[in-house]
Design a protein that fits this description.
mainly alpha
Length: about 120
């Protein structure tokens, strides 16, 4: 009696394993047969818009535009840098003259140390 129950269990376990193995093999085979159909592939492509013709973003023209923008930005930065250098050289050439009276009056510091007029 014990031998018959264990053999039935083995047969049931074997059946479930065979069923799982059959499903495991049949799903990829069924899918490859289904999606190998050109009409279905075309419908899927049109539905999800995987490919649009003509292509909207051409990478080469986008790259050229990006490079041109980068060149323009670099050129404006270079012009600004040159202008700043010119302004700095002009400032260095002209000595900044602060009137002695204004220097002495600032917070009356000059009068504390005897450098300026007393107010």
């Amino acid at each position: 009696m014990l031998a018959t129950k264990s053999s039935q269990f083995i047969k049931k376990g074997l059946r479930t394993e065979l069923l799982k193995f059959g499903i495991y093999l049949s799903i990829p085979i069924f899918a490859s047969q289904l999606f190998n159909n050109p009409e279905l592939s075309q419908k899927v492509i049109e539905y999800y818009n995987y490919i649009e013709y003509p292509a909207e973003d051409n990478e080469t023209t986008k790259l050229k535009e990006d490079l041109e923008d980068l060149r323009q930005n670099l050129e404006t930065a270079r012009r600004k840098r040159i202008l700043m250098k010119e302004q700095l050289t002009k400032l260095n050439e002209k000595p900044v003259v602060i009137e002695e009276e204004n220097r002495a009056r600032w917070w009356h510091v000059g009068s504390w140390f005897g450098n300026g007029k007393k107010s």
